[in-house]
Amino acid sequence: MSRMPFIALISLFAAFFAFWQPNTLYAEEKEPIGIYKNGQNFTVKILHYSIEGGIGPAQVELTDGVLRQAGKMGARFVVLELDTPGGLVSSMRKILKSMLNSSIPVLVWVGPRGSRAASAGVFLVAASSFAGMAPQTTMGAASPIDASGKNIDSTMSKKVVNDLVSLVRTVAARQNRNLNWYEDAVRNSITITSERAAASRVVEVVAPSIQDFLVQAGKHGVHTQHGTVHFSQEQLEIVTYEPNFRYQVLSWLVDPQIAYLLLLAGVACLFIEFTHAGAMIPGVIGALALLLGLYAMSILPTNIVGLLLILFSLVLFALEIKITSYGFLSLGGVAALLIGSLILFPEDDGHMALPISLILGTTGAITVIMCGTAYLAAKAMRKKPASGLQAMIGETAEIVSWTGMKGKIFMYGTLWSATVDPKKYPDGIELENGSVVIVKSIDDLTVTIDVK
Predict the structure, then answer these.
(1) Three-state DSSP class for 50?
(2) Are 102 and 64 in contact (CB under 8 A)?
(3) Are 196 and 56 members of one domain?
(4) Are 173 and 201 in a shared domain?
(5) Contact at 8 Å (CB) between 370 and 317?
(6) How many structural domains are present in the chain?
(7) Is residue 180 domain-shared with residue 164, that is, in the same domain?
(8) In 10 A of CB 253, how many CB atoms?
(9) Can you give the pTM of this predicted structure?
(10) Which helix (H) or strand (E) holds 73?
(11) How far apart are the C-alpha atoms of 149 and 156, rounded to whole Å?
């Protein structure tokens, strides 16, 4: 059965998922809860959401969705519960942009106990309209590093650090926070505890819970476009925004390293399917992995040339099976795979989205798999057939009767009509009964033989 319809179907779905964008990554929108009342006894409706883990494109979409929902339900404030080791600078900038341009103030609380706001998280705290930390939490270490955790190139580092220092000072100055500490956090990766942070004007308060944080914010007053707003605990109406399962999956999926591994796994499995007709399981797994990888890359900032180079490496490895290139096509495939991996994701403010150790490790593993599979497939294709008429070529047979150009031979327990090559033996050949000859070719049911 031809595999072309199967391959075409995979390609069609891959193209669809690569360009399809979801309308939302978050929970279903619900009807507004509570009523906003003008006057002394108004209700302060607050929409609460959490970011736990790395900051990436999924968290950008989540924040945008929360701000839209807050506007629809008439929320006065949004409060972010934060626990993050950092993340992509590009994603952090997008979240900052949404926060700074929102008509609804965003409050940030680092909690619960044991949480941290490191790296990109420092910028979110600095940009908040009101900030607090739970006891036994820390914040800081905002120096830019590459994806493997190492410091970036010194020349590039100066440019990136100066840019990030300007950003953090600008957003921290809005709430009259300790600009020197925020600058130090970026330049020297310093950290600070919650108690010292509140005492040093890095954040406004220390609060053991989100409710206590909001009560203290109400007493302190939160600056808005219309002035400072004070409120009491009795006026609070907190609505928690719960992302659905789809967001939880996508927040894992759009990690650049996960997307890269899915892409390479898909390419490798499809290559195995192409070289082993009818295996099916590698084809199904490869198609799913490739579709998920392409979907993630439709959200992530992806270099299309890098993606095409990786797919081109698959073509070169496949051609190695059909064409005798003495390894040249395989070397080209390795080069295309390596270069494509290096440029697949643009540098994120001076550092690679993929650590070089991951690129070299996966490239090496995929190269071994593809070259090994290509070698076995080529060996199988060039191997002498083990069954059928073609398996008889090169075997020996015994003459039963012979006259000039033709006669009968006995082979595999069966009598066969036989002849000789007229170009080699134009006048025929004399063969005695019982002579052993070699089968050179088979045409229909006539065997061409030659003298052994």
Answers:
(1) strand
(2) no
(3) yes
(4) yes
(5) yes
(6) 3
(7) yes
(8) 19
(9) 0.69
(10) helix 57-73
(11) 16
The verdict on 350 and 417 lying in the same domain is no
Pairing of strands 227-229, 222-224: antiparallel
Contact partners, residue 273, CB within 8 Å, separation at least 6: 3, 279, 280, 282, 283, 286
CA pair distance 94, 118, nearest whole angstrom: 17
Q: Give the CATH number, domain containing residue 115.
A: 3.90.226.10
Q: Are residues 223 and 371 in the same domain?
A: no
Residues of the domain holding 183: 26-242
**Burial environment of residue 44 by CB neighbours within 10 A (0 to 12, 13 to 18, 19 or more):** buried
* Residue 287 and residue 274 in contact, taking contact as beta carbons nearer than 8 Å: no
Distance of CA 298 to the CA centre of its chain: 10
Residue 45 within a domain: yes
| Spatial separation of the C-alpha atoms in residues 409 and 449, rounded to whole Å | 9
79, 214: one domain: yes
pLDDT digits (tens, 9 = 90+) for 26-50: 343 333 333 334 444 578 999 999 9
Strand 414-420 relative to strand 406-411, pairing: antiparallel
CA angle centred on 386, ends 442 and 391, rounded to 5°? 10
Direct distance between the N- and C-terminal alpha carbons of the chain, in angstroms, rounded to an integer: 40
Q: What is the pLDDT of residues 161-205, one digit of tens each?
A: 999 999 999 999 999 999 999 999 999 999 999 999 999 999 999
| Residue of 260, 219, 217, 233 whose CA lies nearest to 107 | 217
Say how many C-beta atoms besides its own lie within 10 A of residue 399's C-beta: 18
Phi and psi angles of residue 285, each rounded to the nearest 5 degrees, phi first: -60, -45
Q: Both 372 and 422 in a single domain?
A: no
Cβ contacts of residue 447 below 8 Å, gap of 6+? 392, 397, 409, 411, 416, 417, 418, 419, 439, 441
User: Which pLDDT tens digit goes with each residue over 298-316?
Assistant: 888 889 999 999 999 988 8
